[in-house]
Design goal:
The complex is a heterodimer of chains A (105) and B (111). In chain A, strands 1-2 form a two-stranded antiparallel sheet. By secondary structure, chain A is mainly alpha-helical. In chain A, helix 2 (26-32) crosses helix 6, helix 4 crosses helix 5 (80-87) and helix 4 packs antiparallel against helix 6 (91-103). Chain A has six helices and two strands. Classes of the chains: A mainly alpha (105), B mainly alpha (111). The A-B interface holds A 33, 36-37, 40-43, 50, 52-64, 67, 76-78, 101-102, 104-105 and B 46, 48-53, 56-61, 64, 73-75, 103-110.
């Protein structure tokens, strides 16, 4: 019984640790997001083939941004430039970038 | 030169679909009730951080995304089901509505 309890506590602790690790640091994210401004920082900037406006992502919902970056990394969302960008970042980078973008003033 | 009237008529026909396809923000607002349940009344107050803000997003981007959800090019269980019911005009109207709402979305600041 006590072993079960310890296992349960250990699992709970590991879950908590994971959440803390995944929390985004906006200051770190600002440095990581420098490249993003090349397209997402220019008003009216257009994606080509097909042609459409590059979305505004500053002020966007934090978890949505993390999910979007993960989807590009895994290939679930298809966009050559975004897929290439997402490959170079870790889960922590994604969390940091999303923390910065969602609160960017 | 005697083909000018014909050419003019053809030009008008070519332009007509563009005019029809343009989104009507007021019509979009009327169609946005279902969207508001998750994205918020004006598309700027979503129910959770998992749901994107739409207010002030680019109109052509919103229209593209809705078409991608409808075709399945972008896979999402909820949005796929919602977009399946939309006609091109509905998509253009909704995109026009949300693009003209005031919200938090903006370009990444250069500072």
């Amino acid at each position: 019984m006590s072993r079960l309890l310890i296992t349960a506590l250990a699992l709970a602790a590991s879950t908590i640790t994971f959440d803390v690790t995944a929390a985004g640091n906006a200051e770190a994210g600002k440095k990581r997001a420098y490249t993003c401004t090349g397209c997402h920082g220019i008003p009216g900037y257009k994606n080509t083939y097909p042609m459409y406006s590059v979305p505004r992502i500053a002020g966007q919902s934090e978890t949505y941004l993390v999910n979007a970056l993960n989807a590009y990394k895994k290939g679930e969302r298809k966009h050559p430039t975004m897929a290439a960008q997402a490959q170079s970042f870790s889960d922590q980078d994604f969390a940091d970038i999303a923390a910065y973008l969602s609160t960017a003033k | 030169m005697r083909h000018l009237p014909l050419l003019s008529a053809l030009a008008l026909i070519a332009l007509a679909p563009t005019a029809i396809a343009a989104g009507d923000a007021a019509a979009g607002k009327a169609k946005s009730t279902v969207c508001a349940a998750c994205h918020g009344p004006d598309g700027n107050k979503p129910i959770d951080a998992n749901t994107p803000k739409l207010a002030g997003q680019y109109e052509d981007y919103l229209a593209k995304v809705l078409r991608d959800y409808r075709s399945g090019a972008r896979a999402n269980a909820i949005m796929g089901a919602q977009a399946a019911a939309l006609k091109d005009q509905d998509i253009d109207d909704l995109a026009a509505y949300y693009a003209t709402q005031q919200g938090d979305l903006k370009e990444i600041p250069h500072k």
